[in-house]
C-alpha cells in the first residue's frame, strides 16, 4: 500500500549524525586546548548515554543532561569546566558543521514531497535540528518538525507520538508510516502507536523477536516502492 503521511527520523536516517558529532566534538575540545583522544571520546559517550537514560526514565530534566554531560566527562578526566558553556559551544558547532546527507536522502525527500506529506520526528534540540535541516537543504520538504525538546517526551514514548498525531491535520494512522534507523525509538514507538513502520537497516543488523518492523530497507531509495502512489 502507499502512505500519504511520512514521519521521518532525522539523525542517521536522513543526516549522518555520527560524522557531524565526531567532527563537532573534536573542534570543541580543540577550542579549549584539549585533544580528543579515543579514550576521552569513550568517556564522553559513556557519560552521555547514562544521562540520557536517566532523563528517559524521569530521573533528571533535559537541561541537566545538556548542561552537565561535558562537566561530568571532564571531571572523570580530572578537569573542571563550565558544562553549560561547553554545551552552548557544542550546539553552535553541531548546527554549523557539515551536514552530511545519508545516501539518497535529498532525492527521496524531493520526490516524495511532491505526492506525500513529510514530517520530521526527532529526539533532538529544536534550534539545532532546524538549523541542521536548513543547512542540509532539506527543511522546505517538510510540513512540520516535531522534536523531543518542544514536546517534553522522547521517542518511543506514547506521549511523544500522541502529541505528533494530535497536531497533524487529517491524520489517519492507516495512512501513516514511521521511518527511522532505530528499532528501540522509531520502530518501537511507531508500532506502539498503531502505525506501520519502516526500519532503515543499513548495517544489516538482526531484528529482535519483540520488535518486528512492517518493512525493512537498506537504502532510502527503496522507499519509492513503498511510499509512492501506485499508478
UniProtKB/TrEMBL annotation:
Listed Pfam families: Hydrolase (PF00702)
PANTHER family, sorted: PTHR47478, PYRIMIDINE 5'-NUCLEOTIDASE YJJG
Name of the protein in its database record: YjjG family noncanonical pyrimidine nucleotidase
The species this protein was found in: Paenibacillus artemisiicola
Amino acid at each position: 500500500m502507499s502512505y500519504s503521511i511520512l514521519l521521518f527520523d532525522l539523525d542517521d536516517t536522513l543526516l549522518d549524525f555520527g560524522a557531524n558529532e565526531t567532527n563537532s566534538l573534536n573542534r570543541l575540545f580543540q577550542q579549549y586546548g584539549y585533544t580528543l583522544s579515543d579514550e576521552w571520546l569513550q568517556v564522553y559517550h559513556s557519560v552521555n548515554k547514562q544521562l540520557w537514560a536517566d532523563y528517559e526514565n524521569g530521573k533528571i530534566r533535559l537541561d541537566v543532561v545538556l548542561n552537565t554531560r561535558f562537566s561530568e566527562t571532564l571531571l572523570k578526566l580530572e578537569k573542571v569546566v563550565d558544562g553549560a558553556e561547553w554545551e552552548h559551544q557544542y550546539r553552535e558547532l553541531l548546527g554549523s558543521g557539515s551536514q552530511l546527507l545519508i545516501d539518497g536522502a535529498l532525492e527521496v525527500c524531493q520526490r516524495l514531497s511532491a505526492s506525500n506529506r513529510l514530517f520530521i520526528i526527532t529526539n533532538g534540540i529544536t534550534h539545532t535540528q532546524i538549523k541542521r535541516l536548513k543547512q542540509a537543504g532539506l527543511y522546505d520538504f517538510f510540513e512540520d518538525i516535531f522534536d523531543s525538546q518542544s514536546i517534553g517526551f522522547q521517542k518511543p514514548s506514547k506521549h511523544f507520538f500522541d502529541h505528533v498525531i494530535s497536531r497533524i491535520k487529517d491524520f489517519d494512522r492507516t495512512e501513516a508510516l514511521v521511518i527511522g534507523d532505530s528499532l528501540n525509538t522509531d520502530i518501537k514507538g511507531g508500532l506502539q502507536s498503531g502505525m506501520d513502520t519502516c526500519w532503515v537497516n543499513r548495517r544489516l543488523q538482526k531484528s529482535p523477536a519483540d520488535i518486528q518492523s512492517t518493512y525493512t530497507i537498506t537504502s532510502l531509495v527503496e522507499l519509492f516502492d513503498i511510499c509512492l502512489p501506485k499508478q
